[in-house]
Amino acid sequence: MTGLRSEQRLRCSAEEREGCAVIRPEGVLGHSTYGVLRDFMLKCAVEQPRALVVDLSAVKIATNSVLNVFTTVWLRISDWPALPVLVATGSAYADLFRRAPVRRHVGVFGEVGEALANVDRPQPRRRAHRTLPHDLASPRAARRFVARTCAEWELPDRLTQDAVHVASELVQNTVEHTGSEARLRLELRRGRLTVAVGDDDPAPAVLVDPASDACNAGRGVHIVVQLAKTWGCVVDAAGGRKTVWAVLGSR
């Protein structure tokens, strides 16, 4: 019983270093605490640092299978915000990670300083953001903001139109289904445009394929699913907020 109680204890903290989020879990990483580290890493990723660097110097790994947490996070953020994940194993877990399949997706280094030194130079990206009030006029303001930003970035008309539609619908959903302001962000990288809207309601957004329920699915759901190459929702239950994002590209 003592072992079970100790495994349930895992605390995570983060600090910014060289533009990266350095995450430090303390305690036991086991099956019962797997989700604690996963959710904390996803929460940090939403802030779009250069990379996630996990410092394992203060953690005890209870079983090898929990190393999948790093692959899981990498898969969840590979489309957006598309960050590298690096692990600083220290001497205690160097051999374990050297043999682990997780190395295919995650950079493995001995110390945090070494990991930071090996973060790839960030791909050129452009960002813009605007906070919109909980107001019926906000979807229209979102459309204007996105259209103006896309024009400044000299994006193709089709991509601009898609971004305007998606941003409008995501902001509309925030206005209709929450009491929160809408935090609209645009990011352009490698020819792909990400539209993300954050709000202060932790209830996850569920976007369904319009073909699955054409009668009941909302118009906004149809538009996002049809126009986006991929989409997702990152929930920060502890912070009481979420971010819904959609990645757009040439069609």
UniProtKB/TrEMBL annotation:
Alphabetical UniProt keywords: Kinase, Serine/threonine-protein kinase, Transferase
Annotated signal peptide: none
PROSITE patterns with a match to the protein in the record: STAS
Molecular function GO labels: protein serine/threonine kinase activity
UniProt key word Transferase: yes
Domain STAS: residue ranges: 10-119
Pfam family membership, one: HATPase_c_2
Protein's recorded name: Histidine kinase-like ATPase domain-containing protein
Protein species of origin: Lentzea jiangxiensis
Source taxonomy: Bacteria, Bacillati, Actinomycetota, Actinomycetes, Pseudonocardiales
